[in-house]
Write a structure and sequence with these properties.
Number of domains: 2
Oligomer: single chain
Number of strands: 13
CATH topology of the largest domain: Rossmann fold
Number of helices: 14
Helix content: 40-55%
Radius of gyration: 21 Å
Shape: globular
């Protein structure tokens, strides 16, 4: 099978680019695959973070044709012509936000009709909703022949917009490119923090729906034996979180690394922690869970969307009933009081690590793709 893949790739950073790169590598083991990407993904004045690109020195072995500008209609035509010239059987396009709909939809409309369009949906409806999200998503989904989703809540959102969608559900596979875990003392030494405390990790992009403020407030109810590590960049400004930290009785026990975390540092942060905390107000699935599986780090998650269900079903951590500071603090204390259960979580993490491999993911997706090609 010949496959075209239109997505963010290196040098763009973030979960979509990382997922696409790993999926591309797996598909390339069995198929001819060509990567198409952006010349401009977001105009700089619209991008809320510090930079859209990976740090200098991070490289990729994938050869990518950067051709699409999200804001230049002439590039939509050029991109479609280049994909048509490649003559793929299938085009895979990830979907995560409505801003990309004009570019992606235009490309799809200009493709040769024999090319099957498969959307890999990370979020059918964004967590931070806008009026245009549903109609835009519906317009794009109607251009597609099939869909890959990573959780049941995303499938439910998709079917609410396109009732006849031909869709396959497969959980987020486990990343394997962050290196091996370190011992806790070594990792804490690299970060310059104490290794003799109960270390809680909040990791990833900081957004309102991820509930970091709830986790900080939960620290009010915990004693000085607990330490919170915050690692990730905020797109909305960090000041409100800094103000909450300043009010804590043990504010020196909150260590903040408000920045993009390069791949080379991921293992250090996860190895320094005793547990990953996911205090989300809403969720479908999370790529951070996939990192936690790789690093074999147990989790504490709120019971929202597919998040709590994934942790509970795999028995890889503790799920708290509601996204509140009180429930989080109770869950954190309970987690550390059940030493034997922590070992069970770690054993189950190893099992999930094997089950949710990229090879298993790609094997299932291969069968799905072939069904569209006769």
């Amino acid at each position: 099978m010949r496959i075209a893949f239109l997505s963010p790739f290196h040098p763009y950073r973030g979960g979509i680019a990382q997922f696409s790169e790993q999926f591309y590598k797996e598909l390339s083991k069995q198929h001819e695959v060509k990567a198409f990407s952006f010349t401009t993904m977001y105009p700089n004045f619209l991008f809320p973070g510090k930079t859209q690109y990976v740090p200098e020195g991070e490289s990729s072995e994938i050869k990518v044709e950067r051709i699409l500008s999200s804001v230049n209609p002439f590039s939509y035509i050029k991109t479609a012509l280049r994909i048509n010239k490649y003559k793929p059987d299938v085009l895979i396009i990830p979907y995560w936000m409505s801003f990309m709909v004009p570019a992606f939809s235009a490309v799809c409309l200009l493709l040769n009709k024999n090319i099957k369009i498969i959307s890999l949906i990370h979020n059918a409806i964004p967590h931070e909703k806008k009026v245009m999200d549903k109609p835009f998503a519906k317009f794009f989904f109607n251009r597609c022949d099939g869909f890959i989703v990573l959780s049941q809540p995303v499938k439910d959102d998709l079917l609410s917009l396109k009732k006849d969608a031909d869709v396959i559900v497969y959980p987020h596979p486990i990343y394997n490119h962050y290196g091996e875990p370190l011992d806790k003392e070594t990792a804490c030494g690299r970060l310059g923090i104490s290794s003799d405390k109960k270390n809680l990790l909040f990791f990833g992009l900081i957004r309102e729906y991820k509930g970091l403020d709830l986790l900080i407030e939960a620290m009010n109810k915990l004693d000085e034996s607990y330490q919170l590590i915050i690692a990730g960049e905020s797109y909305e400004g960090f000041q409100k979180y800094a103000d909450l930290i300043e009010k804590l009785p043990f504010k020196e026990n909150v260590k903040v690394y408000e920045q993009y975390i390069p791949d080379s540092m991921v293992s250090t942060f996860f190895s320094a922690a005793d547990v990953l905390v996911l205090p989300y107000r809403s969720a479908t699935q999370s790529g951070v869970i996939a990192i936690s599986y790789q690093m074999e780090l147990p989790m504490i998650a709120t019971n929202v969307g597919g998040l709590g269900a994934a942790v509970e079903a795999s028995r890889t951590g503790l799920v708290v009933p509601f996204a509140t500071a009180g429930d989080l603090s109770d869950g954190i204390r309970q987690f550390f009081s059940e030493g034997s259960r922590i070992e069970i979580y770690k054993e189950n993490l190893k099992k999930e690590k094997n089950r949710l491999s990229w090879s298993n993911f790609t094997r299932s997706i291969n069968s799905f793709l072939k069904s569209f090609c006769g």
